[in-house]
Amino acid sequence: MSETMRAIRQHSFGGPEVLQIEEVPRPEPLWTEVLVRVHAAGVNPVDCKTRSGGGISPTQGPLPITIGWDVSGVVEAIGSGVTRFTPGDEVYGMVNFPRIGAGYAEYITVDSRQLTFKPDRLTHEEAAGVPLVALTAWQSLVSVGRTGPGTRVLVHGAAGGLGHLAVQIARARGAWVCGTVGPHQVDLVKGLGIDEAYDYTAVRFEDLAHDIDVVVDTVAGDNGLRSLKTMRAGGVLVSLPVPPDDETVAEAARLGLRAVSLTVETDRSDLEHITALIEAGALRPIIGTVLPLERADKAHELIETGQAQGKVVLKVR
């Protein structure tokens, strides 16, 4: 292996243009760590927030930094104490979150227990689009929402990078699922098994959805407050882009509901449950755009339009 690698680095916070491809030293695994040769890295909205100086605190690491938390690749070397993997294993995961992830690079070192085996059904590009959003959806629906047979779920942004996985996870858990989508996304979510799709440009979802137990809101705005009108007592609204505002929290309490936020955690057990759904054919990521590593700036531009359908992924190798 070369002692250097290509990586996307930024020396300042700002727009997508601060993301630059550079040659940097290749890291070495410490005890309990593995060195992964990254084949693909997922791009998420939190990447864009962090790049611009929001999201994760800059105090987590001095500039320059390499961002990115979703990776899929092959184990190249292992540190002392690693027993789960051997060189050559294909792995994927959400790494180092919430610290600076360093996933936009040809190699990354990570604690072995933050990774699991890549699903055989998926390419590296597909696998890289899964961890952060699927873990967020799983923890919202299962850990918080206790979604199971008989549960009724509403997903806002059901065709988005997180939403389309939330729809499938809820369906796999036996729930009835509805969701809001754009006018050109109805057929896509119907193909994922959604029970009712609401074109937000044509209808008001609160006039159609009812007796909802769990709302997964990936959009924010006034969706949270409006969603309370669709829910039955005991239900929970999980607001993901930003915490619910005070008005929404108070109104939820008045109605016998909960309005909460969630920050995703790296949980290998949860990711293994997700992997099992993928291998069973019950969950499939939709990859909307694949760009080469050096076009990370274009990937961020696409994410920030809010019009990306499915996941955006960087092809590293």
Written overview of the protein:
This protein has 317 residues and is an alpha/beta fold. Helix content is 25%, strand content 28%. The protein has helices spanning 45-51, 124-128, 131-144, 163-172, 186-191, 223-227, 246-254, 268-279, 296-305, and strands at residues 4-9, 20-25, 33-43, 70-78, 90-94, 107-111, 116-117, 152-156, 176-181, 196-199, 212-217, 231-239, 258-261, 287-292, 311-315. Strands 3, 4, 5, 6, 7, 14 and 15 form a 7-stranded mixed beta sheet that branches. Helix 6 links the parallel strand 11 (212-217) and strand 12. Helix 3 packs across helix 4.
Please describe the topology of this protein.
Layout lengths: L3 E6 L10 E6 L7 E11 L1 H7 L18 E9 L11 E5 L12 E5 L4 E2 L6 H5 L2 H14 L7 E5 L6 H10 L3 E6 L4 H6 L4 E4 L12 E6 L5 H5 L3 E9 L6 H9 L3 E4 L6 H12 L7 E6 L3 H10 L5 E5 L2
Parallel strand pairs: 8-9, 8-11, 9-10, 11-12, 12-13, 14-15
Antiparallel strand pairs: 1-2, 3-4, 3-6, 3-15, 4-5, 5-7
Helix pairs in contact: 3-4
Characteristics:
alpha/beta, seven-stranded mixed β-sheet, 15 strands
Unreliable runs: none
Q: Give the helix/strand class.
A: alpha/beta
DSSP helix fraction: 10-25%
Strand content: 25-35%
Structure annotation, total helices: 9
Distance between the amino and carboxyl termini: 14 Å
Largest sheet: 7 strands, mixed
- Please report the total strand number as a whole number: 15
Report the average pLDDT across residues. Answer: 95
Overall outline? globular
Q: Give the radius of gyration.
A: 20 Å
Order of secondary-structure elements: EEEHEEEEHHEHEHEEHEHEHEHE
